[in-house]
Write a structure and sequence with these properties.
Length: about 350
């Protein structure tokens, strides 16, 4: 028989935590919406002007690295050791390669597929299970990998496009068709590799820095290093591959540069850090995918893209299931930690109850 105290705790135990995390959830949703909005602005600018992807990203990284360095000041405070700086510099090279591949994938596949392909970094969870996990978890992660590959294959076949989806029975003439044909699986390889590199750089950042303040200081070093790595590539692209027409039109698209640097690079880092530290929501998680999916639906409708809602929901369901199964080991660890915390709280309540007079 449950006591009145247990009944009251069962009714209101989750309410304080829910109300406490509500402002953080709102910040997370708004931050991701602004970041995805910057992706659509960047895509429209690149597709309409034909500007160089490398030059565009480099022009966004330069002010972003200056702002990160000015905010975090990695040269002040406790000196950074070589075991922290060297991996951060290597992570800067990985970040530069990620930006190049992701920008190329965005220009060729569109914003929807480029954003969804970023979650392919969950395959690192499958690799960790094969190398270090138990055999019972390996099959779950392999099943998650199959679901993720199925989702990416359906996206490459145009299931999220109104002109290629088998669930689009009528075409809306008001929609703006951005691509005449589905990109195909070969074009999807570029953003998928970029998503894996994005997950790799996050893993390296977590391994190098455990404390939050140290993580932000090292991230400033990483972005500055990525800018330096990208500098010779951007100069070579400007000399060899860029056209004068694209350079002339750069000042007329200030919103694309401003939104990409402010929302897509700077703000999203702090938003994801808050979500990971306070909400325990990592990037490659079904909850994060749910938020991104809602933002994508809104912006696809606002921009009048070639969009199929039913096909996108099916692809998102496969991808979300695959991510959940691929990170099953992390869920088990989180559940064990939560259960241990709850057991400690219950044990403490029992001690307090036993000390009271009967």
């Amino acid at each position: 028989m449950m006591s009145p105290r247990q009944i009251s705790e069962g009714r209101g135990s989750s309410n304080p935590a829910t109300f406490r995390h509500t402002p953080l959830l709102i910040i997370h949703i708004i931050g991701n919406f602004l970041r995805i909005w910057s992706v659509y602005s960047m895509y429209h600018y690149l597709s309409q002007t034909g500007a160089s992807v490398v030059l565009f990203i480099f022009c966004c990284l330069v002010p972003s690295s200056i702002i990160f360095l000015a905010l975090q000041k990695p040269w002040k405070g406790r000196p950074l050791s070589n075991t922290q700086v060297v991996p951060s510099l290597i992570n800067g090279g990985i970040t530069a390669l990620y930006f190049i591949l992701w920008g190329k994938g965005l220009k060729s596949c569109g914003p929807l597929r480029a954003i969804m392909a970023e979650y392919s970094g969950a395959v690192l969870g499958v690799l960790s299970a094969v190398l270090y996990g138990r055999r019972s978890l390996v099959w779950k992660k392999v099943g998650g990998l199959v679901a993720m590959l199925a989702s990416l294959y359906l996206l490459s076949q145009g299931w999220a496009m109104a002109t290629h989806s088998p669930f689009s029975f009528n075409e809306n003439p008001a929609t703006e068709v951005q691509t005449d044909q589905a990109p195909g699986m070969t074009e999807m390889v570029v953003p998928v590799v970029a998503g894996i590199l994005s997950a790799l750089r996050r893993v390296i950042a977590r391994r190098v820095s455990l404390k939050n303040q140290l993580k932000r200081r090292l991230h400033a070093v990483t972005i500055a290093a990525a800018t330096c790595f990208l500098f010779p590539v951007a100069m070579w692209d400007m000399i060899i591959g860029s056209t004068s027409e694209s350079i002339i039109e750069l000042p007329f698209s200030a919103w694309a540069f401003l939104s990409t640097g402010l929302f897509g690079i700077i703000l999203i880092f702090y938003v994801d850090s808050i979500a990971e530290e306070r909400l325990h929501m990592v990037f490659s998680s079904p909850k994060h995918l749910m938020v991104a999916g809602g933002c994508i639906i809104i912006l696809e409708i606002v921009y009048k893209m070639n969009f199929s809602l039913m096909g996108f929901l099916i692809c998102s369901a496969f991808l979300g299931f695959g991510i959940y199964e691929a990170t099953s080991l992390e869920h088990a660890r989180k559940d064990s930690l939560r259960n241990s915390d709850v057991s400690n709280e219950i044990f403490g309540d029992q001690i307090q109850m036993s000390s009271l007079p009967t």
